[in-house]
Design goal:
heterodimer; A: Aspartate Aminotransferase, domain 1; Aspartate Aminotransferase, domain 2; 2 domains; four-stranded antiparallel beta sheet; 16% strand; globular; B: alpha+beta
Chain lengths: 402, 129
């Protein structure tokens, strides 16, 4: 295990991307990829490329082994069993899978689904469509002024006996870390199933699905230093009971012109040829992160976010959104500047920050702003990156006479 | 050149033709929902010409400055001429290099005005019928 030295970043050199002299502060949107991930994918295509689960020749078996090996790695990473890991395109598809397969079979007229005000569109819209189709209700738990989930309000809404509670582990805007284990226990006590959106936590802290005890969990591989694939975890019993989502090749056991039966878990939910190289790359990313150690990642990132937070707080024109204790992201506005203007002025100085509504328009409404700018960090982010960003922000202030 | 050239900031901080008209014949509004920019254009028409024009709204510097520059350009033009304005002409009014991601900011006011004028022309034709 590499030793983490204060002030120095020993991981940055693992990322070929940084040959470009950019200050990249948009890891919450997508992370850069370490060389080992790129190498693993290249190696797959150059040496082991074949379709999986089909051919009986050695090469096809090799590709299948790599694909299923990747599944095992990811299962181990979040403490699940391989049968409970479904590869999807992205976290959004994972949530849609649950909404369509589990939701359509289980949510009935007049029943309730509970979400929170800090959800990403991907954890709002699939439920909106589902409740519309079923004549069910979508309830929204509020956040406090500090930007944390109002747990009392959440508990109050649980009295409505929702069938499903879906919430994010870490807010992609506020950085708020939700107490997933406690919320899940409360939801279970009320008789609900729980879906956790782990997109913003999976690369920043240890996520253990057995410990959290959630029923479903989704994350995107590309935010975990891997390629553009997604993962859905579901408790085995639930996945077994669910009807399929997409259908066609690979997800079937037997097909006749009259009827079909379904493959075993997890393949029942993987119709068509999957992104094999994507899975292989994601497994390499998991190995990479495990090599550093999630505890080390967390320590380094918490320190960096605290540093950035303190410095930002000192700039008079800056308004920060969300609580002091946070993971990975800081959203803010600068004076009366529109976030896109902030982002563009920073971009002109080689600093990449996200601006806009961050796929959380309802949360923007709650905060009473049309948009905000956001910095987000990863294992490769340095104090120097933050300092360059702060200097660029001072320039923006000057340009806009703030 | 920076997108935040002095001229853009000047128009943003001191927008020309900002506000509302008392008796506009044309009122048109739209927004870029993805960023929250919004613009309303009001036009007073006399002899089929833009006799007076105001814009109002909120949003980024590019959207507001570009809308303001457009109002100056179209003052005195005939509605037919305004309806025929194209994207290229609009972008020439804004003397900066606009990145592809920000084009829709620069074009919001243009879109609002053009649609408003075209609708007015359509209505006019209908009346004549």
């Amino acid at each position: 295990m590499k030793k983490v030295v204060m002030g120095a970043n020993v991981f940055r050199k693992d990322f070929p991307f940084f040959a470009r002299k950019l200050v990249y502060l948009d890891t919450a949107a997508t992370s850069q990829k370490p060389r080992v991930v790129l190498d693993a994918m290249r190696k797959f295509y150059e040496i082991s490329n074949a379709n999986v689960h089909r051919g009986v020749y050695g090469l096809a078996d090799e590709a299948t082994q790599l694909y299923e090996g990747a599944r095992k790695t990811i299962a181990r990473f979040i403490n699940a069993s391989p049968q409970e890991i479904v590869f999807v395109r992205n976290a959004t598809e994972g949530i849609n899978l649950v909404a369509q397969a589990w939701g359509r079979a289980n949510i009935k007229k007049g029943e309730t689904i509970l979400i929170t005000q800090m959800e990403h569109h991907s954890n709002i819209v699939p439920w909106q469509l589902l409740v519309k189709e079923k004549g069910a209700n979508l309830l929204v738990a509020t956040i406090t002024k500090a930007g944390e989930l109002d747990v009392l309000a959440f508990e109050k809404l649980l009295e409505k006996k929702p069938k499903l509670v879906a919430f994010t582990h870490v807010s992609n805007v506020l950085g708020t870390v939700n107490p997933v284990k406690e919320l899940t226990a409360l939801a279970h006590k009320a008789g609900a199933k729980v879906l956790v959106d782990a997109c913003q936590s999976i690369a920043h802290m240890h996520v253990d699905v057995r410990n959290l005890n959630c029923d479903f969990l989704v994350f995107s591989g590309h935010k975990l230093y891997g390629p553009f694939v997604g993962v859905l975890y579901g408790k085995k019993k639930l996945l077994e009971e669910m009807p399929p989502f997409l259908c066609g090749g690979d997800m079937i056991k037997e097909v006749s012109f009259e009827k079909s039966s379904w493959n075993e878990l997890p393949w029942k939910f993987e119709a068509g040829t999957p992104d094999v190289a994507g899975a292989v790359g994601l497994a390499a990313a998991v190995f990479y992160l495990e090599g550093i150690g999630l505890a080390n990642v967390e320590r380094q990132e918490v320190e960096l976010v605290e540093y950035a937070f303190k410095k930002l707080q000192k700039i008079k024109a800056v308004q920060i959104y969300g609580p002091k204790t946070r993971a990975g992201v800081i959203s803010f506005n600068l004076g009366d500047m529109h976030a896109h203007d902030v982002s563009t002025v920073l971009d002109e100085q080689g600093v990449c920050v996200r601006s806009g509504h961050h796929c959380a328009q309802p949360l923007m409404g709650v905060l009473g702003i049309p948009a905000c700018a956001r910095i987000s960090i990863g294992v490769y982010t340095t104090k120097e990156d933050i300092d360059k960003f702060l200097a660029a922000l001072q320039k923006a202030k000057k340009v806009f006479r703030l | 050149m920076s997108m935040y050239a002095e001229v853009i900031l000047d128009y943003y901080r001191h927008p020309r033709n900002y506000g509302k008209l008392n008796h506009p014949q044309i009122v048109s509004h739209d927004m870029n929902t993805s960023c929250g920019d919004e613009i309303t254009m009001q036009v007073e028409v006399k002899d089929n010409m833009v006799a007076d024009i105001r814009f109002s709204g909120k949003g980024c510097a590019i959207s507001q400055a570009a809308a303001s520059m457009l109002t100056e350009h179209v003052m005195g033009l005939s509605l037919g001429e305004v309806a025929k304005l194209n994207k290229e002409t609009m972008l020439k009014l804004v003397p900066i290099d606009i990145s592809p991601m920000r084009l829709k900011c620069a074009l919001l006011g243009f879109k609002v005005l053009k649609l408003g004028v075209i609708k007015a022309l359509d209505r006019g034709e209908n009346h004549e019928n």
